[in-house]
Write a structure and sequence with these properties.
single chain; 980 residues; 42% helix; 28 helices; 6-stranded antiparallel β-barrel; alpha+beta
């Protein structure tokens, strides 16, 4: 009856699939329905591609990522996830950056992608290998009706060096399902042992491969990167965890994690040879064709693909999917981590669309609605955020197109002027990478199309030199060095009547209607150059010098804010960049440090380009610093005083005087106070007023330094005019400071602020480190993840009495987790709380270990005394994990029989023998414990040490009985000899 029902279910599914056709939507839905109806699996939605609470990943790269807490046992027992037993879903995945990185392969073949959908079914402590394989085989061969003769399966062959045996169980299961023996193939670690990353859940896997050709024996092509024989499904038997030290540790329960790429499965079912020929991509290919000036996509590869046109089609189609999905999930192109990877993907797409497909500016955003049409039903967030996705891609495309045009001119001009036109100078490539944000792989591709190779050795030298220069520059800055105008040069500037630099353009930015910051362009004239502590009218190519301009939009490092970076170029010559490496101000003169890419002289007109991403990041951090200063005063009292700060693009540092150590509760209150102002999206007001007038503002915060007059007042939520009203006390209720830095126009852009570190520099002065925005969100998620792990261990210690082995394991886990909590970027208040809890857990684990070891030692002593009644010399073997545990047994025996002298040995699995002994007080003048242990361990070619009363040592022997006999004879001889 059950068999007829299963058969009927399979028939219904197959009929439904045939009725719907083999569309990607039907294939996806058939998979989900099969496991829900046939296997009783719960259907769950895809997680966002941005990992939640997992700092080890840039992106979700497999379907199992969101279930990692289940595998590790850290899932909150009160959560819905804790109830999962059988689950099915289609997970959005990105493999670009980190260990699993397919970016470089995209476009070169027809089956690699940066974004893909992973169809997966999971068992958490429920079914295991047999049912997993059976369900997979049934779905493929009976529901999807894939011919059996085209399928091959692989299994893990084992790896002796890792102590892992072959997965013969999986092999036998496939054979029992009717797979011919010559199609069940063994492979090693690389192919058939799956790991999520450097650490985390892992285990042996069995894969199913499909032969697109058929009618032959294709076993030799399995796992050989052949486009004709491709892997379609990977069944991972998750039973181990890769620890931080590289060791493997059993998971609390056996789990099944399967993953089948939807793109490859659809290719099989639609009887195509390329993923890009399926309905997941063909609408995109048509849209690309309509929007570009190239022939329609023909699917060519390698040398057959003239001009790399079809490769460009594949790259753009893949990348626009990735960009759309990532942005919908809150990952935006940026300057670090996953955001930096996404920025690289976007720029790669822009380059291929504009350079090769000859698409017009603004082309990429027009492809987003097509992506939404294909994927929007499965992932509704794409429909919800279509406009935002298009705007973000459009803005980034426009910015990079401008840089791309400059880069193209620079490459062409360089090749025209280079004597060896087949080798491109590494110095120019480095400038493109550093100053225009060109990914190095794009430079390589552009040169490859021209038949030119890159001087990689020179490029590597420049990268190393840059790293060294930054290190030296940082040291010089700390020592007060750098290319700063000295007193003589300043006097000379004044004597010549050179006007000071107008740097007011650094404040020239506005918020547009969409809430984006728009920075005004700036042109300037070179007034003088500075090098070797002297002023010059000419800077020659290759020389490092300081450039003084009549005006600038670059922010010079001051007020604790890092200087801007960027570049400038001559107005009349748009193909030579002058990268600005540092910016200083002295005496009103702003000096831009550059290494001249060409001759530069007084009178040259230049256009200045700041790195807007870095500037905006600094603005966010600087406004956040003001909010932090205000919140500290509100929470800790008026006596708190700023002692120093530094604002950079990646984080902010704030030193503050305090009366007492800051508690976790106070740190949490400070963050809450900041969040209140951020959520109100207050206006940040600025105005220049005379110093004396500014000093009258109630609640004004300033540091002990000389301020210019007039001075710049920065106020949050209240205009400066309101603050200056007679008898006004409104400034005491908000952040008001004297500051020359660049700030946001509204506080909402800060997003969030998390204090990730707080420590005392000296008594009474604390240093706080904080992050903002996405970094702050990630810090909170990492803190929650670690808190869940601490809670998991706490519950395990509280709910049951552990065995000695488990107690040791828990103690080790607490130690590893303590290290993670100490080093993680997470809320400092939460870190302090978890550190206190972990110390308590460590004490509890250690107490449990001591009690269990004592109890175990007492039991072993009882057995020994029953075996050796009324004996004054006891020599025997007992099992023990360590020499310390062995000594406890010795102590227990001697405690119960004070007149006895005891020596115990313990044979270890490694072949080593442990030795511990104790001599009674009555016998110590005749028998020394140290001598006894040394003689016994010496016979085992080992060593020992101790006192006359107790001693321990180690050795190795294949004849333990002989050693025991010698030990007993030695003791008796000594005691009898002295007695006579």
């Amino acid at each position: 009856m059950a068999a007829r029902l299963c058969s009927r279910a399979r028939g219904t599914l197959a009929t439904t699939r045939r009725a719907l056709g083999s569309s990607s939507a039907a294939v996806r839905e058939t998979f989900l329905t099969f496991f829900r109806e046939r296997g009783g699996h719960q259907r769950v939605p895809s997680a966002p591609v941005r990992p939640r609470g997992d700092p080890s990943l840039l992106f979700v790269n497999a379907g199992m990522n969101q279930f990692k807490p289940i595998f590790l046992g850290t899932v909150d027992p009160r959560s819905e996830m804790a109830q999962y037993r059988r689950v099915v879903n289609s997970q959005k995945c990105v493999r670009a950056g980190g260990k699993h990185n397919d970016l470089e392969d995209v476009g070169r073949d027809v089956y690699h992608h940066t974004f893909f959908e992973m169809l997966g079914n999971w068992s958490f402590g429920d079914y295991f290998k047999e049912e997993a394989c059976s369900l997979a085989w049934e779905l493929l061969t009976q529901v999807y009706e894939i011919p059996r003769e085209r399928l091959y399966v692989t299994y893990f062959a084992g790896d002796p060096s890792s102590g892992l045996g072959a997965d013969e169980e999986s092999r036998d299961i496939w054979l029992s399902l009717g797979v011919p023996p010559d199609r069940v193939l063994p492979f090693g670690l690389r192919e058939n042992f799956w790991e999520m990353g450097e650490t985390g859940p892992c285990g042996p896997c069995t894969e199913i491969h499909y032969d697109h050709v058929g009618g032959r024996d294709a076993a030799a092509l399995v796992n050989r990167d052949s486009p004709e024989v491709v892997e379609i499904w990977n069944l991972v038997f998750m039973q181990l965890n890769r620890e931080a030290d590289g060791s493997l540790r059993l998971l609390p329960q056996h789990n099944v994690d399967t993953g089948m790429g939807l793109e490859r499965l659809v290719t099989v079912l639609q009887r195509k040879r390329s993923n890009y020929d399926t309905d997941l991509f063909t609408p995109l290919m048509d849209a690309i064709h309509q929007g570009s000036r190239c022939p329609a996509y023909q699917g060519r590869l390698g040398s057959a693909d003239a001009g790399n046109v079809d490769m460009a089609y594949r790259v753009v189609a893949d990348h626009i999917r990735t960009l759309s999905v990532c942005i919908a999930d809150g990952v935006y192109p940026g300057m670090s981590g996953a955001e930096l990877v996404l920025r690289r993907i976007l720029r790669r797409a822009v380059r291929f669309s504009s350079e090769i497909l000859q698409a017009p500016p603004g082309f990429l955003p027009t492809l987003v609605p097509t992506v939404v049409d294909i994927l929007g039903d499965a992932y509704p967030e794409l429909r919800r955020d279509t406009s935002q996705i298009m705007n973000i891609i459009g803005d980034n495309e426009a910015a990079f197109l401008s840089s791309l045009q400059r880069g193209r001119r620079i490459i062409d001009r360089t090749l025209q002027q280079t004597t060896d036109s087949k080798v491109f100078p590494g110095a120019v490539a480095w400038s493109l990478y550093r100053d225009l944000g060109f990914p190095l792989d794009l430079i390589g591709l552009m040169l490859e199309e021209k038949g030119v190779t890159l001087d990689s050795a020179a490029l590597e030298q420049l990268a190393q030199a840059e790293a060294q220069r930054k290190s030296q520059a940082q040291q010089a800055e700390e020592e007060g060095g750098g290319m700063r105008l000295d007193v003589h040069s300043l006097a000379e500037l004044q004597r010549r009547g050179v006007p000071t630099t107008d740097d007011s353009p650094k404040y020239s930015y506005v918020l547009d209607a969409d809430g984006r910051y728009v920075f005004s362009p700036c042109q300037a004239t070179v007034l003088l150059l500075y090098k070797d502590q002297a002023l010059h009218s000419l800077g020659k190519e290759g020389e490092r010098c300081g450039v003084i301009l009549d005006q600038t939009n670059f922010y010079a490092e001051q007020g604790g804010q890092a200087h801007d970076s960027g570049y400038f170029m001559r107005v009349e010559q748009q193909d030579v960049l002058f990268p600005v490496e540092a910016v200083h101000v002295a005496g009103g003169y702003v000096v831009h440090e550059v290494t001249a890419s060409d001759n530069l002289q007084v009178g040259d007109r230049v256009t200045l380009f700041i790195d807007e991403t870095q500037r905006l990041s600094c603005m966010v951090k600087h406004t956040a610093t003001h909010l932090l200063n205000f919140a500290l005063r509100r929470v800790l009292g008026e006596s708190t005083e700023q002692r120093g700060s530094h604002v950079a693009a990646d984080r902010l540092r704030f030193d503050v005087s305090i009366k007492a150590p800051v508690t976790p509760q106070q740190l949490q209150e400070v963050e809450r106070a900041i969040q209140e102002v951020i959520q109100r999206n207050e206006v940040v007001h600025t105005a220049e007023v005379p110093v004396k007038v500014a000093d009258s503002i109630a609640g004004l915060r300033k540091v002990d330094e000389v301020y210019p007059d007039p001075v710049r007042v920065v106020s949050v939520g209240l205009s400066v005019d309101q603050l200056l009203e007679e008898n006004s006390q409104s400034g005491t209720r908000t952040s008001v400071e004297l500051c020359c830095g660049t700030h946001l126009l509204r506080t909402g852009t800060v997003g969030d602020v998390v204090i990730v570190s707080e420590r005392q520099l000296v008594k009474g002065v604390s240093r706080l480190i904080a992050v903002t925005g996405e970094q702050a969100t990630q810090a909170r998620e990492d803190g929650q993840m670690l808190a869940a792990e601490v809670e998991s261990i706490s519950q395990r210690l509280k709910t049951r009495s552990p065995s000695l082995l488990e107690a040791h394991r828990l103690s080790k886990e607490v130690g590893v987790l303590t290290d993670s909590v100490d080093s993680a970027a997470m809320p400092q208040w939460q870190r302090k709380e978890l550190q206190m809890e972990l110390k308590s857990l460590q004490r509890a684990a250690n107490t449990a270990i001591r009690k269990l070891e004592t109890r175990q030692a007492a039991e072993k002593a009882r057995v020994l005394l029953e075996k050796h009644p009324d004996q004054l010399v006891i020599v025997d073997t007992v099992p023990a994990d360590s020499v310390f545990a062995l000594m406890k047994v010795v102590n227990q025996v001697c405690e119960q029989v004070p007149a006895a002298s005891v020596l115990l040995l313990s044979q270890q699995d490694s072949g080593k023998v442990l030795c511990a002994c104790q001599v009674s007080k009555a016998s110590v003048h005749r028998l020394s414990a140290a001598d006894w242990a040394l003689k016994v361990c010496g016979q085992m070619e080992g060593s020992a040490g101790g006192s006359d009363v107790v001693a321990k040592g180690t050795g190795s022997t294949s004849n333990l009985d002989a050693v025991l006999g010698a030990a007993l004879a030695c003791a008796k001889a000594k005691l009898q000899e002295s007695g006579s």
